[in-house]
Amino acid sequence: MSISFQDVIATGPITVVSIVALVVLIVETIRDKTELLTCWISITGLVLAMIVAFTSIENTGTAYSGMVNTGGYANFFAVVFCIAGLLSTMLSKSYIQKENIEHGEYYFLLLLAVVGMMLMAAAADLIIFFLGLELMSVTFYVMAGFVRKRQASNEAALKYFLLGAFATGFLLYGIALLYGSTGTTNIESIISRADILPPNTTFLIGLGLLLIGLAFKVAAVPFHMWVPDVYEGSPTTVSGFMSTGGKAAAFSALLLIFAPKLVNLVGPIQEVLAVLSALSMIVGNVIAISQTSIKRMLAYSSIAHAGYLLTGVVAANASGTKGILFYLIAYTVMNIGAFGVLSTFESKDRQNLTFDDYAGLSSKKPVLAGLMALFMFSLSGIPPFAGFFGKYYVFVGAVEAGYTWLAIVGVLMSVVSVYYYLRLVVLMYFKEQAVISEPTVSSLGLTALVISGVAVVELGIFPSTVLNIIANFF
Amino acid sequence: MSEGYILSLILALPFLGALLVSLLNKESRNAIRILGLAFSGGAFVLSVWLFIMFDGGNPDMQFVEKYAWIPELDVSYFVGIDGISLLLVVLTTFLTPIALLASWESIESKLKGYVALMLLLEVGTLGVFMALDLFLFYVFWEFMLIPMYFIIGIWGAAERIYAAIKFFLFTMAGSLLMLVAIIWLGYYASTQPDGFFTTNLLKLYEIAPGIPMGIQSWMFLAFTLSFAIKVPIFPLHTWLPDAHVQAPTAGSVILAGVLLKMGTYGLVRFCLPLFPYATFTFMPYIAALGVIGIVYGALVSMVQPDFKKLVAYSSVSHLGFVVLGIFALNEEAMQGSVIQMINHGISTGALFLLIGMIYDRRHTHLIKDFGGLARVMPVYAAFFMIVMLSSIGLPGLNGFVGEFLILVGSFKSKYLGSHWFAILAATGVVLTAVYLLWSYQRVFFGKLENVANQKLKDLSVREWAVLVPVVVFIVWIGVYPHTFLQKSELASKQIVEQIQDAWKGFRVASAESIVSTASESASR
User: Fold this and answer.
1) I need a surface site. Which of A359, B68, B114, B298 has the fewest CB within 10 A?
2) The pLDDT of residue A244
């Protein structure tokens, strides 16, 4: 296998972010006080990668001897990851300053995670998928524990690492069994062999183990135990990044491997996915009600959203898949926005993270409160915001596939979710006293929040902006 | 497929107003008020023009506008009105400026947000009445919740938070099941020959009646649940007293005047024509619930110590009439229901306005705090008398027209199958007179014992300006309802005939299938 220059160009977004990540690392080592510089290098790099991904979206093909897909699906997700990385970087600046963890490695790790995600979405081969997954996961383990001196942060990192390693084991075992039963690690070949294989236990077990590993990464019940602790303990901006970029990456891989064709061919998988989806929606939403910490609430809500997204995988049809792609973009902007607002108010000793701290916020900080309310409405799926259309589209998929009951579970659980999302709005707008301390928000962070807010409204009212792009490669 | 863009203009005006208001300095309170009034007033002027231009001789949708929105799912920005929507659009644009004028002084904090939200609320409700695409309809239907939620939650009375959340969750719970039903309808359209996923209402009118009976019932129930919560139909009404009592005056006016009509409008626009067979199956039950609502609402009103709560429960009673009229499935009753929706909007809206005026002065709406008010506020008492009599249904005032048509229609109805519906409903008219006259007596007559009431001022010029237009309409509809009925006549007739035809076809088909199975078994 030889690596040609064409391969490097064809996988442009990955190349760009990898180079920028290395540049950040080098700049960090050779000079002092480079935090501002590395931040801007990362931002520039991510914007550049986004442009590259966007302009080459129609050049679909493969690179690196058929190991990596280029264009289309891969580039679409590259854009999503760049958005997640970009917004997180912009929000992180003042947050890591406040938390005294402003080291250049932070941006390096963030960029590296983006590279991992991109590899996952571009994987044509299970090995590449695994490579990307590990790249992303390992950087996440480090980022979760980035506040070295804080116990909660250490706990988050350790928990995430131990459980994550365990899930990796399942995943790798699954890949091995799939290879054993089909003789290939090429994803497309595996899928196409599913219908010519005789009923094969090894194959099914392999798929099942792979599903367990992926369900862990997307935070689906019953593999969700790590989520609340990790999201709560990690630095807030990192939680935002993990819950959006990480989830999008996991779903991109899930959609590649458990593609509609495979799900339709292997009946039991669809049933299993449906159960995972329903359980995630129910458990996530119901437990979220009783949380007092907003960060934990968002963690459980993230589990619930994994459930809604899985509905689209269960559907295994065009609407479901397109719905997931749209949903992931919508979820990225609204959830990073919500974590972003949290990060501006969080004070050094992890104060101001409970619901009660937000009482009366609207009179003191109308803009931030307004944005937070917007993200909450969108997360709960109320039109005309982005979250609503995402849900609508995946539920269309579910109904078309004959899974109306799953859509019904989904909407009923949405009612539950309205209660806890709006609790924050109630406190911010309907209570009088304002006790919360002054937020630390840089103009960069505020820009990111405003961008997210505008995107939530824009995508909600004109979903076709994204759907037209998706239509290019479907 | 476009006939001008007046509907979009009517939708855009309050929206623009809300944007402009939110850009103003929050200290320039008068500018905020005037701007709000100007934009909502502008929408009213436009809708009057709409009313005049509307062709009552055409039963189809008019002023139709259609632009592709989400082509993948055949969702379009598709608006248009028939005679029924026309009246409700005019009602909405009429009540919003009145409500803004009524809350000119009573809103002290965050005036800017208040005016902006009232205007957004108007956009949402107008959109519901105009939408001809189920997706668009749903967007407006849900979007409308947000401004109303804030209006109750921020400017409401002591228990406002509880009421706001209850209002939101009740409505949301119902409407999300409707969302699944909407998706299923779209999917059903795609299973037809040459079909594709669509939420275009006019297309679904043709397709949906063919849904197999079992599923049609579920679809009907999903839609009806959502509308029944909104109306509200007994026993789903429990959110209503809380929301009404806690909301600020203007909120109650819009809530009672317009928002409840979204439920009854939904029944007429969606449930009946989309699911005619299921309508026939469930008709007696829902009509019965309507009658229970009439009597129950009136009885509960009678014992309320709180005047605002009394009026809130009277809404349950009055809307019971509308529901009964809709499900009597004949032209008189349908026309009665349509005009009763308007009447209830005007009369109950006006009652809330009047209660708000006394609340501004005394900060209470408990009946026992008053007595003998007619001595100090004679003009107020006179206005109150007119509005109250209209609500009771005195001939010559608006309330009579609707109730009369509904009672006649449901008495004659072939489909209800019993005269008892109309007879029991008629007792509601008597009970209404009892609770309203009795409370009027306790508030306005008798001795002026409470010291706090002795120095109350009578109506101000602004309050005159609020009430006079309302009274004009009360008398106009009462004396010459033809102005309004002629616009909605053909639309009502068409809907009724549509389902009656479907019913005939359905009976023929089921008779044939019985015959064919019989002959099959005979030939064996």
Assistant:
1) B68
2) 94
* CB nearest to B177's CB, from A392, A411, A430: A411
The reply to whether residue A411 touches residue B165, judged by beta carbons under 8 angstroms, is no
Q: Is residue B272 in some structural domain?
A: no
Rounded Cα gap, residues B402 and A231, in angstroms:
59
B256 within some domain: no
Supply the pLDDT for residue B331: 87
Residue pair B456/B329 in contact (Cβ under 8 Å)? The answer is: no
Return the pLDDT at B517.
59
Quick one: how far is CA B203 from the chain centroid?
Answer: 25
- Give the per-residue pLDDT at A21: 93
Give the closest residue to B304 by CA, choosing from B361, B357, B351, B253.
B351
What's the token pair of residue B451? 């010291």
Tell if the CB–CB gap between A396 and B161 is shorter than 8 Å: no
Query: Is residue B65 within a helix (H) or strand (E), and if so which, with residue range?
Result: strand B62-70
Asked if residue B232 has a cis previous peptide bond (ω within 30° of 0), the answer is yes
Q: Which residues pair with A61 in a beta bridge?
A: A70
Residue B394 lies in a domain: yes
Beta strands in B173-324 (DSSP E): none
**Residues 283..322 of A with a Cβ closer than 8 Å to B: which?**
319, 322
The answer to whether A140 contacts chain B (CB < 8 Å) is: no
- Cα distances from A205 to residues A108, A124, A178, A261, in angstroms, run 37, 21, 8, 18
Provide the shortest C-alpha distance from residue A459 to chain B (in Å).
11
pLDDT the model gives residue B1: 39
Interface check for A383 against chain B (CB to CB < 8 A): the answer is yes
Mutate to test the interface with B, among A394, A413, A464, A474 (most CBs of B within 10 A): A464
User: Can you tell me the distance from the alpha carbon of A120 to that of A122, in angstroms, rounded to the nearest whole number?
Assistant: 5
Mean pLDDT calculated for residue range A165-181 = 92
The CA distance from B370 to B377, in Å, is: 12
How far apart (Å, rounded) are the C-alpha atoms in residues B444 and B378? Answer: 9
Phi first, then psi: give them for residue A460, nearest 5 degrees: -70, -40
Residue A176 pLDDT greater than 90, yes or no: yes
Cβ neighbourhood burial of B207 (10 Å; 0-12, 13-18, 19+):
middle
Please say whether the beta carbons of A69 and A124 come within 8 A. Answer: yes
For residue B388, which phi and psi values (nearest 5 degrees)? -65, -45
A394 to chain B nearest CA, in Å?
10
Test A392 with B160 for CB contact under 8 angstroms.
no
Q: What is the number of domains present in chain B?
A: 1
Closest CA to A245 of A155, A150, A169, A135: A135
Domains of chain A: total:
1
pLDDT in tens, B188-243: 988 888 888 888 888 888 888 888 888 889 999 999 999 999 888 988 888 888 88
ipTM of model? 0.90
The answer as to whether B320 is a domain residue is: yes
CA dist., res. B204 & res. A465, Å (int):
27
Angle at B249 between CA B244 and CA B254, to 5 degrees: 70
A418-429 average pLDDT score? 88
**A388, B180: Cβ pair inside 8 Å?**
no
Q: Which residues on chain B place their C-beta less than 8 Å from a C-beta of chain A?
A: 69-73, 135, 138-139, 142-143, 145-146, 149-150, 153-154, 160-161, 164-165, 168-169, 172-173, 176-177, 179-180, 183-184, 186-187, 190, 197
User: Would you place residue A268 in the very low, low, confident or very high pLDDT band (cuts 50, 70, 90)?
Assistant: confident
Long-range contacts of A182-189 (CB under 8 A, 24+ apart): A185/A125, A185/A126, A185/A127, A186/A66, A186/A124, A186/A125, A186/A126, A187/A123, A187/A124, A187/A125, A187/A126, A187/A129, A187/A256, A187/A257, A188/A124
Q: Determine the structural domain holding residue B392 and report its residue range.
A: 281-508
